[in-house]
Specification:
Blueprint: H1 8-18, H2 20-24, H3 35-39, E1 46-50, E2 54-60, E3 69-74, E4 77-82, E5 106-111, E6 116-126, E7 129-136
Antiparallel strand pairs: 1-2, 2-7, 3-4, 4-5, 6-7
C-alpha cells in the first residue's frame, strides 16, 4: 500500500485539479446518443501554451485521420470532435478471435480567456496529435482624444 501524506498544501493542489475543468471546460456533450456510445466518448488530454499573439493547444487523438476531425470556434469557446475509423479489413478465412482496440469517439470543449481570431488560427494533425494554433483577437484600437 502506498500512502500519501496529507497536508494543507496537498489539499490546495487537490482542489486545483478538481477545478481544472472550470478553466478548460468539460468534454463536449454528445447528442442524443445511446448510453453505450456515450461511454465510448473519450475526453482527450490537452496541453495549452500561450504566446503574446496566440494559444497553442495540443490534443492526443490516436487513430484519427484529419478528415474525421471537426473543430468549432465560437468566441472564446473551442470544441473538438473526432471519430476514428474502425478497422474492418480481414483476409480470406480470417475471423476476429479477440479485440481490445475499439474506435470510440473523442470530444473536448474548452474556454479560453479571450476570443479567438479565426482568420489567424490553424489546425494540424501529425502522428495522432492535433495542434491548434488559435490566434488572439486583438483588442479594437481605442480612440483617444487629444486635449487641446
Amino acid at each position: 500500500m502506498f500512502l500519501v501524506p496529507v497536508s494543507r498544501r496537498t489539499q490546495e493542489w487537490s482542489r486545483l485539479f478538481d477545478d481544472i475543468d472550470r478553466f478548460f471546460g468539460s468534454p463536449a456533450p454528445t447528442s442524443a446518443a445511446s448510453a453505450a456510445s456515450a461511454a465510448a466518448t473519450v475526453s482527450p488530454a490537452l496541453d495549452v501554451t500561450e504566446s503574446p499573439s496566440a494559444w497553442t493547444v495540443k490534443l492526443d487523438l490516436p487513430g484519427v485521420v484529419k478528415e474525421d476531425v471537426k473543430v468549432a470556434i465560437d468566441g472564446n469557446q473551442v470544441s473538438v470532435q473526432a471519430q476514428p475509423r474502425q478497422e474492418t479489413e480481414r483476409g480470406e478465412g480470417e475471423r476476429i478471435v479477440y479485440r481490445e482496440r475499439t474506435a470510440g469517439s473523442y470530444a473536448r470543449r474548452f474556454t479560453l480567456p479571450a476570443e479567438v481570431d479565426q482568420s489567424q488560427s490553424a489546425a494540424r494533425l501529425d502522428n495522432g496529435v492535433l495542434t491548434l494554433t488559435l490566434g488572439k483577437r486583438s483588442a479594437a484600437a481605442s480612440a483617444q482624444l487629444t486635449v487641446n
